[in-house]
Amino acid sequence: MRQARLLGALLVGPFFLAAAAAQVFVPGLGAAAALAAICGLLAAAWLAVVAVTTTGRDTLAAGAMLAMGAPAVGSVIAAAGGIASPLSLLALGLVVEPYWVARTPRSAWLGSLAAIGAFVVQAMVAPALAGADIAASAWHWLVPAGYVLSLLPRLHSLLGVEPHRDADDEHRGIEDFIDAVVFRMTLNGDVADVSRKARDILDLQPELLLSSGLLDRIHVADRVAYLSALADIRDGAASRNCELRLRLPRRADGPAGDNYRLFCVELVRAGDAREIVVLLRQALQTEELRGALALAREAADRNSAAKDRFLATVSHELRTPLNAIIGFSDMLAHGMCGRLDDPRQREYVCMIRDSGNHLLAVVNSILDVSKIEAGSYDIHPEPFRFRDAVDMCRAMLSPQADAKKLRLDMHVAGAVGDVVADSRAIRQILINLVSNAIKFTPEGGTISLAAKRLGSRLHFSVADTGIGIAEADLGRIGQPFTQIQNDYTRQFEGTGLGLSVVRGLVGLHQGTMTIESALGQGTTVAISLPIDGPATWRASRGELLSMKAAETREEIDGTLRKIA
Fold it and tell me: Pairing relation of β-strands 407-412 and 181-185?
């Protein structure tokens, strides 16, 4: 539609200007010069028409004709005797015609600048034509009057009043059949036409969305998706869909401070035509689903927090009586309150002590997992010899390995030296990994713990020749309370918290954990940690050590006392 209006202006407008030039140029410049000027005007306009119809690009042609029209009108006014001549009304066409073609405020401003330029040209050319002494005559009124008459059929469109459309019109638009705003735009994204439903759905006049009006109202965060979809259509895609938030007038019943609303947008290339059709629908269902999802997420967060508080409370409540059970049973086993003569009594006391220790280990694991998931597990990095942690792990677990006739190999490279980490957490990682390997490795197998330094990271791994893990189960390893069940693992007790604790502690140290395993061939768990400690610790190194040194020493001493 815009191109059709431009072609009409290019075909008809030069005739008005040529008629005016014939009146003023022939007396002053002669018939030959006047004929040359008229032919030049008509040729330029028709070349612009050919360019628009063959390329479909109207912006360059319209700008070029506006730039050429300003000096042409100025020269005619100067030759007619100046701004006192009735032909000076032709400058009105430089303002009206651009607005008639593009229907945007920008086009009206550009036309006004062209009209001002025409009067500037008139002032510059007037001294050169002063000798012609052309006086204003009644004939000079014919061209302005004819141009004003040409505006009458277009008056309703220039004033923004749409013509009446019959309800039975066979050319009803697509917007009459669907509940959506229909945009028609050029391939470069300029909106050329907007359906009338923009008033009902967007609370906006359609004229406000023309040209770049739609893009200006899209939320900044959504413009990339919109422009990407537009680029895909321009490259030949048949259609694209996306969701956009548009800035619209604030509704009285809407939330305070929020004037963006969500819409579903479908872009379709209109056949072989060089235009894009955009359908804009309200995303009411999407907004409802997002609201429900937000409520569900809040409920899940509340449930998770309640679960963590429950686990922490229960764990603390269980540890107090368990410590008493373990302590008193240990005293009875060592005869501190009198010797137990019956062997069965000593056996039962030892079973009570071992069961208490096992239950305490489970409670501690549950407490650690709940702290890690709640983000309240504090680590206190400090430099220590990694070999010391390995030696302590060997001392603790060698009796278990010997009982199952397992070979326990420890290989720590000399270059490892000191590492910066929470020593208690590293010991727990090693103990959990090696004890898991001992548990699931049949008699006569081998367990290897190897460590080396690669650049600024410590790499250590625990490998066994045990039963292995199926590929389908590897993704579930490390989840809390998850145990891989098969005919062999059912013989062993456990809560499935060991690897979960390891994964959480490794994550707190900003490390990585990988698991490689195959059924019947064994399992290898590899850990990679930064030698110099987590980045968050390095950023506040001095302050952290000064505040936590005493507490860390007390925890390590308590762990060592338990081990002893």
Answer: unpaired
- Cα angle value 469/390/436 (rounded, 5°): 25
Residue 123: partners with Cβ closer than 8 Å, 6 or more residues away:
78
Count, residues in the chain? 564
Q: What's the angle, vertex CA 516, arms to CA 497 and CA 367, rounded to 5?
A: 15
Cα distances (angstroms) measured from residue 25 to each of 28, 66, 72, 139: 5, 21, 12, 14
Residue 170's pLDDT is what? 39
Location of structure tokens 């220590």: 384
Question: What Rg do the C-alpha atoms of the chain give, in angstroms?
Answer: 43
DSSP codes joined into one string, 488-513: TGGGS---S-HHHHHHHHHHHTT-EE
Residue 78 tokens, joined: 């100067």
Distance, in Å, from the CA atom of 1 to the CA atom of 361, rounded to the nearest integer, reads: 80
Full-model pTM? 0.42
Is the pLDDT at 414 greater than 70? The verdict is yes
Q: What is the Cα–Cα distance from 223 to 229, expressed in whole angstroms?
A: 10
Please give the structure tokens belonging to residue 563: 């081990």
Kindly list the distances between the CA atom of residue 166 and the CA atoms of 139, 154, 401, in Å, as whole numbers in the listed order: 43, 20, 93
Q: Where does the pLDDT of residue 134 fall: very low under 50, low under 70, confident under 90, or very high at 90 and above?
A: low
Report which DSSP code applies to 482. Answer: -
Query: Quick count: other Cβ atoms within 10 Å of Cβ 563?
Result: 11
